[in-house]
Amino acid sequence: MNLLVVGSGGREHALIYKLKQSPLCEEIYCAPGNGGIAQIATCVDIAADDLNGLCEFAQTHQIGLTVVGPEVPLVDGIVDLFESEGLKIFGPNKECAAFEGSKLLTKQFLMKYHIPTAHYKESSNAQDAIASLELFSYPVVVKADGLAAGKGVLICENREEAIEAIESVMVEKTLGDAGNTVVIEEFLDGVETSTLCFLDGNTLIPMSSSKDYKRIFDNDEGPNTGGMGTYSPNPFVDEKLSEKIEKKILDPILSALKQEKLNYKGVLYVGLMIVQGEPKVLEFNVRFGDPETQVLMLRLKSDLVKIMLNVTDGLLEDHDVEWEDNAAVCVVLASAGYPGKYQKGKVIKGLDKVDGTAVVFHAGTALSEEGIVTSGGRVLNICASGSDLEEARLNAYAAVGKVNFDGIYYRSDIARIYEKTK
To answer: DSSP characters for 15-74?
Structure first.
């Protein structure tokens, strides 16, 4: 069948890389795609938030399955539109996607069903938000309620930083309407991990574990980003902890979704903090994580097209999702200044020198007369597999050393396991 992938980042490049391996995949399109995706798929000039344009394209090109990468079209209701036209699409409907559209909605859902999470207080004006700081110790977390491209979570070490964060988000509107409401949240100190799950409305199957690096600088310093690297599996998530996550987090989530009569189909990303051995939910995302997807697609053994069709058809319980017995590491190459202001149009050199031990997924690139150039804050995802995390890490950084562009920046400590172990 013909496939359409919606999006333009490294996550979408990785999904296409895996989807193309399926014998069910005939031709694959990406809207709008990027400079690297154009090398393995047909890119079409339709924006990811142009729902009507995407729907029309799917109809005229006999698209058998559409896969949605980013959150914005999901929150805007692309699944509802496609399904109303009889088109098969992978992702949650608008009602379910609201979990990512509002952090407050997620917190209310978790509290209602007694699913472990941090204590919080929401506020719709800056004065109330500042007053609610008295209820918390420091550090404290300030979250913009709405979509903020991974930049809406601010960890504040003291009251002054918290007030500055509140005023930035709510008064100066640095994140736009996403900051109309904020969630002030207890800071959880522990080990962070991510659990992505396939859901078909009745069945939930967790994917292999992964670990994301949100902060811009080494040793988890500096502001949050959309993600500077990741690895899989996460050795901290052993069999005992996996069972605890399933029993205390995933099973209650599935039960709660059913009680709320939410027909959730697609991927649910559950961000977790393990505090003294106990899992607590940090956040929900309603799509594949970025850059978690990149390492997961290197390790997924099963046919991704078949999995997605089973999800959309409500047949997930009949499908085993299998993983390679290896490890994978992803290092994000970013533009200088990210997650703040950065320049575009820098020529990328050395891509042809990356050999078969690594895979390069393009995140923010474009084609120009000079070749492939930078066009985003996160530019490239250098990914590699190995028999274990150390081998995968060495392979990834060996490839990183072959690529260069003006203003290149990346963390040097991805998959260097220094996290707490208790």
So the answer is: HHHHHTTSTT---EEEEE--TTGGGTSEE----TT-HHHHHHHHHHTTEEEEEE-SHHHH
